[in-house]
Amino acid sequence: MNSKMLGSIAIVAGTAIGAGMLALPLATAALGIIPALVLLVVIWGVSAYTSLLMLEINLRTGVGDNVHAITGKLLGKKGQIIQGASFLSLLFALTAAYLTGGSSLLVLKAKNMFDIVLDNQVAVLLFTLVLGGFAALGVAWVDKVSRFLFSLMILLLVVVVLFLLPEVSIASMATGAIAESMTSNWMAAIPVVFTSFGFHVCIATLVRYLDGDAVSLRKVLLIGSTIPLACYVLWLLVTLGTVGGYEVNSFEGSLPSLVTALQDIAHTPWISKCISLFADLALVTSFLGVTLSLYDFIAELTRAKETFAGRIQTWLLTFIPPVLCALYLPEGFVAVLGFAAVPLVVMIIFLPIVMALRQRQSQLGGYQVSGGSVALVIAGLLGAVIVGAQLFVGI
């Protein structure tokens, strides 16, 4: 396996792993560890299949096209509008979720480190102004910062998992569903878990990078998507298996409560600091990547000028909607991540299925993911289940 493939695998895994990992225990605690792991594997299967479906579409359309161009070729202007609206909704939702999670951790840090009671709305504005400014600096700055922070985050994840694994209790892992309604438990968990496997936005870039080599790309997507699955399984084991499903469920989606509970289990102060820093980096790296994408997308839509006034205008359009959401939904980290599943389903399940059907009718030849029409129907049904689950939670 050459260096380009290894780098591509890292891109796939790095795109998926982020702040969504922090929400997994909070979203699945009521299920119990075994059902939660089963759900992880099923969602991973859907995500892996749809990534190969998108690979098929990319290769048949032509190496070098981006997602917007591919959608336009196969589905026309209406398809591009749906794809663009879904992408914008996804990025707004993710930014709002990371703002709520990041501000809540900032409030916790202000209390623990400086004994300052920081108002949550002030924390949202501080988090936005300090870290949101990177989006306007451009991809070169964000790339350098993100690579360093992501590498440090993975290192801290390994350290935290290694030191918490001995504390895992079989009794805690065996804890069953907590809440009264099993249906509500599953409906709340499914969208959040699905959002945690959203790495598909990088596929078109990787097709260009690996010169359309179908064999290599298939390996990259399967291996790259399996790494997040392994990380998520270990993360659920050390959270639900130490703190306990009943306790985590009682946090009601509060990220600071989860971090504090894990710190209480750590026997040494430096492990406690590693846990806190890991949570911080998971949020910050995801926030930087998502807000940069959102900033660039809005700049392209509005055709903003590369002037100071133009950048300020784009920055305001980027952050005002998610900031308002974060200000009025201070505990909405898990809930907003769940909402992000709806546009994500449209982007990586529904639209790819329609595009694949169009291409297969033309019998273009070349790479085709196995499973035929049966697999497409199953993927579509599972996509409908994910959307239905989120709508059920929102009612």
Describe the overall structure.
With 395 residues, the protein is mainly alpha-helical. 81% of the residues lie in helices and 0% in strands. It is built from 17 helices and no strands. Helix 4 runs antiparallel to helix 16. The chain is globular and about 65 Å long.
Instruction: Compute the number of strand runs.
Output: 0
Distance between the termini: 48 Å
Structural class: mainly alpha
**Fraction of helical residues:** over 70%
Return the average pLDDT rounded to an integer. Answer: 87
| Radius of gyration, whole Å | 21 Å
- Supply the number of helical segments: 17
- Which percent range describes the beta-strand content? under 5%
Multimeric status of the protein: single chain
**Biggest sheet architecture:** none
**Element string (H = helix, E = strand):** HHHHHHHHHHHHHHHHH
- Principal-axis shape: globular
